[in-house]
Amino acid sequence: MPLKLSLRPGERFVVNGAVVQNGDRRGALILQNKASVLREKDIMQPDEAGSPARRIYYPIMLLYLDQGDQEAAYAEFAVRLAEFTSAVRHPEALADCVAVSREVMGGEYYKALMRCRKLMAYEDDLLGNVDVDPGLSARRDAG
Q1: Which positions ≥6 away from 117 have C-beta within 8 Å?
Q2: Residue ranges per domain, the chain?
Q3: Which of 65, 59, 114, 108 is nearest to 81 (CA)?
């Protein structure tokens, strides 16, 4: 089933590790086969992984984009998820942790990323970061 991306002017995204940028008008891109695609808002830079849930998201993103050392990214994910799970007591957050683990183990990295966003929202709510967008808001300040 094709994937259609509706793009804002200048919006960037990654397709199989290649950074692509839309032109100066709205556009649409249709991918006819399976590819690893992340919009700019879903891409996290290493320095943005500054909280426990974000430290789970980042290695999953690397696994999804197939960048770098897969074994090291998986090991980092496993350590960070174990740390987060040992500190969380909320049943829904724990269920999301189990689901993220299952999805990563099954190679369903995009699903795991989207579920991990729920963990980031839970963490932000718990820490009182009400103005923090679970969609990687650190980009907001960057431009």
Answers
A1: 57, 134, 135
A2: 3-42, 46-131
A3: 59
Question: CB of 57 within 8 A of CB of 103?
Answer: no
Q: Which residues of 27-66 are buried (b: 16+ CB within 10 A; e: fewer)?
A: eeeeeeeeebbbebebbbeeebbebbbbbbbbbbbbbbbe
Read off the pTM: 0.82
Per-residue pLDDT tens digits of the chain, which is 143 residues long: 778 889 999 998 988 888 889 899 998 889 888 888 899 899 999 999 999 999 999 999 999 998 778 999 999 999 999 999 998 888 999 999 999 999 999 999 999 999 999 999 999 888 776 544 545 544 434 44
